[in-house]
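User: Could you walk me through two proteins back to back? I'd like the raw sequence and the structure tokens for each, with a short line separating them so I can tell where one ends and the next begins.

Assistant: Of course. Protein one, sequence then structure:
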Amino acid sequence: MIKRIMVIGGAGSGKSSLARTLGEISGLPVIHVDVLYWQPGWTMRPQDEIRHPATSSSTICKNRTK
């Protein structure tokens, strides 16, 4: 059974759409790494605020605007 899938690609290549579809099909959580490291306006989060990927994926995904 697959436990993790990593989607990598350039800007605008469809990573988020593919990840969302894979999450729906597989039932796996989708974690957008940008949300872990970047604040609104693409300013980097301070090191002490960077969240670990083990943070609840549902919380992370709800904060995703796209």
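----
Protein two, same layout:
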Amino acid sequence: MSLYYTSPAKSIEIIDNPEKFVYFKAHLEQAKAEGKWIWIFDCAEMRNEHFVSIDFTKNLFKEISENQLNSLMGIWVIHPNSWMRTSISVVTPLFKKEVISKIKVVEGTRLELISNLEKMGIAGPASEWLGRESVMVLKAQSQAQAKKVAF
């Protein structure tokens, strides 16, 4: 199983239009091609410019429900903020329970997060990827080899 980490606050570019969504979708397909995967979404330090539109969020969940449902094992939200909570609330009635049930919100300090994530099945030191500069990286790779994806 692969573990991907995304932090919009660390992104180079925000993807919030149809043309750039195609680019983002290609990275989702790459994750799917590698087999089962979990997406860690870190909301820490997000500001207004990092928030994507509700339309983008709905398109993302549509993509997940139509093309990623069998490969995506979970979306784990760490450092949740009001924008993320609102986004989850908006999409909850629109999508299958199978999609929404994959979302887990993990709260707490950094040490609590590491402990909670390890209890959820993350092996090894979670601090390796919690502090990375990259936006979407495969956990199994070293920082020098990491795939960097900005959105």
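The radius of gyration is 14 Å.

Let me know if you want the two compared in more detail.
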